[in-house]
Amino acid sequence: MSSMLAPQADRVMALGEWEERWQDDRIGFHQPHVHKMLERHLDTVLNGRTSVRFFFPLCGKAVDMKWLADMGHSVVGVEISEKAIQQFFEENNMTYSEEPVPAIPGAKVYKSSEKNISLYQSDLYSFSSSIEGQFGAIWDRGSLVAINPRDREKYAALIISLMGKDCRYLLDTLLYNPELYKGPPFFVPDEQVRSLFGSSCDMELLESVDALTDRQRTWGLDFFTENVHLITPKSS
């Protein structure tokens, strides 16, 4: 597996680079509609539950958050870009409050006045279960594939620590030839998903689809596969 990961192993995106992308509107990763994988697999994630607490790592301004809140679920997101968070509320015509987070120096939390949505402007790794407890569901699209590859073990440990006993974690990963494109989004093979989460979680590949579009062709890619995994804590 290490040879597969080698081309991107040392790739680093500083937090400031992500903030610059938001400032400059270079956000080709943002989708203006609810993600089709979340729509298709929502019933599997909910598993008959109502009023589920969802966690969105590196949430950006994903419209998925309002979609879930409109159904009566609650949403907590973490995002480094203040602009992304403000745009989320403004573009959805939602009023919000803004307050500091005593446990995370320099962080702020933006809370919707109408819906159960709280978005933390913070470095993801400063966030923990001591801030908002654990979650019943996690939607990871554009998060594991966006973090620096060398941080994946640290990331997985954080995600596992945020999972409640009944948590259902929907993870979206991307497969392509990392020799041809340096990322982000980064290449995350199924073998690595297993090595990151397999010791404490059960895993199921829900869907694998050909996601190649002209956008990926301009990156020089000839195949681009999107995999969706359901990850759940092993019952102890």
Automatic annotation (TrEMBL):
Q: An example of a Gene Ontology BP annotation on this entry? A: methylation
Per the UniProt entry, the signal peptide is none
Gene Ontology CC: cytoplasm
One MF annotation (Gene Ontology) recorded for this entry? thiopurine S-methyltransferase activity
Q: Which reaction does it catalyse?
A: S-adenosyl-L-methionine + a thiopurine = S-adenosyl-L-homocysteine + a thiopurine S-methylether
Q: Name one Pfam family in it.
A: TPMT
Task: Give the E.C. number(s).
Answer: 2.1.1.67
| SUPFAM superfamilies (alphabetical) | S-adenosyl-L-methionine-dependent methyltransferases (SSF53335)
- Its chief place of residence is cytoplasm
Annotated keywords: Cytoplasm, Methyltransferase, S-adenosyl-L-methionine, Transferase
Give compartment(s): Cytoplasm
Supply the InterPro entries for this chain.
SAM-dependent_MTases_sf, Thiopurine_S-MeTrfase, TPMT
Q: What PANTHER family does its record include?
A: THIOPURINE S-METHYLTRANSFERASE
Q: Which family does it belong to?
A: Belongs to the class I-like SAM-binding methyltransferase superfamily. TPMT family.
**Entry's HAMAP family?**
Thiopur_methtran
Name by which UniProt lists this protein: thiopurine S-methyltransferase
